Amino acid sequence: MIELEGLTKRFGAKTAVDNLSFQVRPGVVTGFLGPNGAGKSTTMRMMLDLDNPTSGTVRIDGKHYRDLPEPLKHIGALLDAKSMHGGRSAYNNLLCLAQSNRIPERRVAEVLDLVGLTPVARKKSKGFSLGMGQRLGIASALLGDPEILMFDEPVNGLDPEGIHWIRNLMKRLASEGRTIFVSSHLMSEMALTADHLIVIGQGRLLADLPMADFIHQNSRSYVRLRSPQQERLKDVLHEAGINAVSVPATGTLEIDGVGPERLGELAAQHQIVLHELSPQRASLEEAFMRMTADSVEYHAHAPGLPGAPAAPAPAPAPGMAGDNPARPADVPAWGAGFDATRKGGE
Ligand SMILES: Nc1ncnc2c1ncn2[C@@H]1O[C@H](COP(=O)(O)OP(=O)(O)OP(=O)(O)O)[C@@H](O)[C@H]1O
């Protein structure tokens, strides 16, 4: 279990993470979503004690990260797959990490096998493709057989086979009772992977709810009709007390709350020709974009979706004051699968 209470991080005048409070529970995949610059990576870095909170706390199984005796055995993370030592083989990268965390060498071969890298174990990691690098980062996260795993944008740049593999791996790890926390800015991807959802925007909590609830709340279903007798069809629907909205861009009508059977029968009764009668479901990506519309920091110039009020967010727990002292230099560094250098601005 990961617990955040009133977690806040400021970089000068910029508040990257703003009074975040939530829990990440075991046995499920929890998706961590937010648009670019929302504060996901900064939050994850504070979870691993790589950035100091300005205020608030993070607890890993009830303890501060720095108080975990052998951290890799509690929590594994993939933050930045490119941070491996390129001049070392995959095997040696993992071996160094294992040795610094008193993990037996046989575990190195086990995790290489688990991620499918055994055939290239002795190759230097600088020659690895993006997908192989991600697998190596995941192997490093799994090395200590931790109960908690965090993945920052693990499917970035992967091919469909790689995406499928990571998705199944996360589900399997969760089904073993582990705590899986995975960030993404793609709702469509998360909808296929996560059981629970935490959404942030401009560092603030926007939603904390089961994925099934998000899908239920945001899957607007409607019927689309297209007819060469559009105006007549509209009149007929109006007479039947059905509200149809014209969509000029597609030349169609959209109807909420009435099934396709009834609409088809009405058209037939009035001998109206239909070229399309199709049930539709609004995309989750659109719902996510509406939820975060007010907090998107970097807008493209193309016209976006209309802004809508953010989804009701659970009230954040009261923040806990108190600065976290800097992590001492001798605390075992993560070493792999992430970039252990602190971001500037502290
Ligand atoms: N070291 C730093 N100094 C100053 N500002 C920073 C620093 N690190 C992050 N920020 C700012 O904090 C905000 C949150 O950044 P963060 O990288 O955590 O977001 P993110 O949700 O992970 O974004 P992305 O999806 O683009 O990776 C951004 O506005 C970013 O510019």
Automatic annotation (TrEMBL):
Residues 2-227 form the ABC transporter domain. Keywords: ATP-binding, Nucleotide-binding, Transport. Residues 300-346 are annotated as: Disordered. It comes from Streptomyces cirratus. One of its GO terms (molecular function) is ATP binding. Belongs to the ABC transporter superfamily. PANTHER family: ABC TRANSPORTER, ATP-BINDING PROTEIN. The keyword Transit peptide does not apply. This is ABC transporter ATP-binding protein. CDD domains: ABC_BcrA_bacitracin_resist (cd03268). It holds the Pfam family ABC_tran. Gene3D superfamilies: P-loop containing nucleotide triphosphate hydrolases (3.40.50.300). The keyword Signal does not apply.
